[in-house]
Amino acid sequence: MKLITILLTVITLTACQAKEGANKPMETSNETPKEPTEKVVKTEAEWKKILTPEQFRVARKSGTEAPNGDVYKQFKKQGAGAYHCAGCGAKLFTSKEKFDARCGWPAFYDPAKAENVTTKVDRSLGAVRTEVNCAKCDAHLGHLFKGEGFNTPTDQRYCINGIVLKFVPEKKEEPKNEEKKDPKKTKQPDKKP
User: Stretch 12-31: mean pLDDT, rounded?
Assistant: First the structure.
């Protein structure tokens, strides 16, 4: 009973803290961020200059955004593209691995670049879970759940806080010069009477 009370208190506090940043959208950029090649280490003050207060709370203080918020709704509408760490720019996931887990947070069945995602045991809240972090800057991303019965290639759910992601839409290829021609100017074959 004590564990349930603690969990309800933590969930309530998390939801209240998350409300201040709940209306902030997930970052979107048409430019792919420069990916770090080495570990990114910054002071708390430096992270606060780079991240919004909500991003800082989630990424640097292991917070959780409120479920079913604007960021989640935005995530569900996004098309093809890649998801990068909002803190350091490392590529973490792509739209190819995303799926609708109906959990209120962005979900992926596998990371796009496994070397940019790490996991570790999380014993907070009186339970043992698997925490997901950015391998380049140690940002808290969310948690990994296995064996839930999802019809995905891995039966894993990377349950990720969307506020710590930066979405880069897939660039559409420009048509070749021949395809750019005006169809009205293209000669049509003669029609027989």
Answer: 57
